[in-house]
Amino acid sequence: MKISVAMCTYNGAKYVEEQLSSILKQSLLPSEIVISDDGSTDETLDIIESFWSKKNQTFPLAADVSLTVIKNPLSLGVTKNFEQALLACQHPILALSDQDDIWQPDKLEKLVPLFEKDPKLLFVFTDSRLVDAAGKPLGVTSFQALVVSETERTAVTSGNSQAVFLRRNLATGATVLLRRNLLDYATPFPSEWVHDEWLALVASFAGQVHMSDECLIDYRQHGNNQIGMKKPGLRHYVGRLVFPRTERNTRLFARAKAMNSHPYFLNDQGDAHNAAAGKLAHERARQELPAKRLKRIRYVLEEKRTGRYDTFGLGLQDVVRDLIQPV
Description:
- By secondary structure, the chain is of the alpha/beta class.
- The chain folds into two domains: 3-220, Alpha-Beta Complex (Spore Coat Polysaccharide Biosynthesis Protein SpsA, Chain A); 234-324, no CATH class.
- 47% of the residues lie in helices and 18% in strands.
- It has 17 helices and nine strands.
- Strands 1, 2, 3, 4, 5, 6, 7, 8 and 9 form a nine-stranded mixed sheet that branches.
- Helix 1 (16-24) links the parallel strand 1 and strand 2 (32-37).
C-alpha cells in the first residue's frame, strides 16, 4: 500500500531536517511527502529546499520519494493546516508528521500492515517517547503523561473506542496513521477541534481504531511546541480546580456545537448523531451553570443523574470541577 506523509511546518528551522531524515530512513519508505507551511518567517523553507536538493546523494534508497510543498500566504492554524496537507496527499495510507520529532526506522513497516489486515481499520495511533530539545529522553511516554487507564485501553482494543474519544483524546497526532477515506467523513475539520482528536473521534464511529503501546517516535518537547505535553503533577490537578471555568466551558460548548452541526454527525441516523446531540446537551448544561457555587449544586447533581458526566466528560473529576471552579 502506498504511503503519503503529511507534515505541517511553522518556523521549524531548528529541527525539520532531522525529522525529514528520520522519514527517509524508514525501512518501508513512503511514496510522497506533502509539507504545508503555515507562513514561516525563519529559514524553514530554505532548509527543506536545500535538504531535498541533496536527498538522492544522502538517501539513495529514497530517490523515488516525491516532495510537495504548499506555502500559505496567511496562517491557517494547526487544524486547518493539517487538513490542507492531508487533502493534498495522493495515496491510500496517510501518516501525520510534526516538524520537530524523530521517527524510529521501523515505524511505517510496523503500522502499515495493520491496514492491509483489516479493511475496516481507519485510524492507528501509538505511544511515543518524550524527549527534550536535545533529544534526551525525559523518562516518560505520552501515554504515561496522559495517564491512560486500563479501562480506556480495554475500550479501544475491544472496538469501543468512541466511549473513550467522546470523553477525551488519547491520540497524539505525530504518532497517527490513517486511511485516506477517513477524510470523506471527517472533512471539513472544525476549527474548534485539534486535527488529531477530531480524526480519532470520527474514526471511532466510522470504522475501527487501533492503539499500540510501542513508542515509534521521539516526541520532542522544546518549549516552543504548538501543542506540547508533560506528565501532570499535584499542582496540575489543584490548578484545574482553582482556574476560572468560563473560558474552558465556553470552548467545550463551542466544540460540541461544531460536532453536532458537522455533516457526518448531523446526517447520521444512528449512534454518531445521538452522541453528538448528547454531548451538546451536556456541554450546554455545564455552560449554563450559575455563577454562585451554592446555586450550582442542584444543577450539577441533576446533570450527574443523567449519566452524561461519565459518557461525555471525566466523570467525578468534572463534577468536582463544576462545583468548585470560580467564574
